[in-house]
Amino acid sequence: MAKKIIRKKSNRTSSKVKKDTRNRYNLETLRPPRGSRKRKVRVGRGIGSKLGRTSGKGNKGQKSRRGYSRRRGFEGGQMPLHRRIPKRGFRSPFGTTFDVINVQDLNVFPAGETVTPDLLRAHGFVRTRQQVKILGDGELQNKLVVHAHAFSGSAKDKITKAGGSFEVLV
Fold first, then answer.
1. Which of 55, 65, 86, 95 could bond 43 through an S-S bridge, CB–CB 3.0 to 4.6 Å?
2. What is the residue-wise DSSP string for 42-88?
3. What's the mean pLDDT in 85-98?
4. Using CA atoms, how far apart are residues 73 and 80, in angstroms rounded to an integer?
5. Rounded to 5 degrees, what are φ and ψ at 149?
6. What domains sit in the chain, N to C, each tagged with a CATH number?
7. Do residues 100 and 135 touch, judged by C-beta distance below 8 A?
8. Degrees (nearest 5) of the Cα angle 163, 164, 166?
9. Which of 95, 97, 108 lies closest to 149 in space, CA to CA?
């Protein structure tokens, strides 16, 4: 015969008493949202923790030792890329860079106009505050007085051939 198990009632309030659900949030029931408080992983605390013994660093080798950090560009002893590629060219510390404009771009200005770097910036031909150089691509139809920091030989010829003049700025 099976014994009948009798459960003893506890002294706590019975479940029949209705709880007050109007004020669910008060100082006793405040808790952070689920998932917002994640415990930090404690490595090296036994094999049952999944990150015990080697603490997720693998077996032996330089990368498993404490204090390891490889320098930028290190390729494990192989000759790094920045040393395998040959060095090329030379950049002069005294070199100057120019914003270049071709002679054909100056055709938008009316005949007799004095073209300066400031005027070229105002019309959007030059976008930076660098020096301006005029190159000789295209043909010039209008007689212009052109002021710039440098001119190519063909640009000088085409400006004078159109009846204009040029002046080199310092």
1. 55
2. --SS-GGGSS-TTTTS-SSSGGGSTT--PPTT--TTSPPHHHHSPP-
3. 93
4. 6
5. -80, -25
6. 98-168 (3.100.10.10)
7. yes
8. 145
9. 97
